[in-house]
Amino acid sequence: MERARIIAPLLVAVCVLCTWIIVTELGIIGAYALPKPGLVWDRLISGLADGYLIHSTWQTLSSAFYGAFLALIVGIPVGFGIAHFKPFSAAIEPYLAASQAIPAVAFAPLMVLWVGYGTPPIVLLCALMVVFPIVINTAVGVRDIDRDLIAAARLDGAGGFILLTQVEFPLALPNILAGIRTGFTLSVTGAVVGELVIGGERGLGTELTTAQHLNDSAGMFATIVVLAVIAVGIYLLLRAIETRLIRTVSGK
Hints:
CATH class of the largest domain: Mainly Alpha
Largest sheet: none
Helix content: over 70%
Distance between the termini: 20 Å
Number of helices: 10
Number of strands: 0
Number of domains: 2
Shape: globular
CATH topology of the largest domain: MetI-like fold
Strand content: under 5%
């Protein structure tokens, strides 16, 4: 099963790459729209060697991390509040749902008005995109806890902060970690969208805009490849951390 999880994505990647090579070599799609893989590879290597892709990647990841962290420290308490207090849940859930109907691009100009240009509005935009999955996953995780376990913990004298930190939080941890894993990927998306719309420090979104203005399709694809590698790397890293933490908490 573990081997299949590794081989299957690699086979898909090989099929996509082979199709890409065939389509570009036969001229089915023009180079202005779909550059040859070799050109993208050369641009990727030159960008890494010159250092600008490394700097841009670091800038985007920094904004994404700070945004995800801000969403984390807000989202988990709100999720617990929704799970425990029905009036609070009834008051806040409609607004959470409404926030998902508004595209991130629409928030970007507001962020500029509120905090100005630069990195801060991008961080806030990332936080807005991440907070929803963290809140919902936390609330679902707490609500799904077996009530008999909570009752047994109370009989043993657990209550208040002890019940919250030593019983509810560990039992809800798988859901919370799943929300964080989903949220951090969204945070990278938010950082790129923010850089495309707001500008500020030179990140991967800025690199995409620059390449677009120069009609540099190879540069755009090189940046997209970096974003894809980041997404896969973040997913695998958070998945490994999630598995390790769950095993530690469960004592396995």
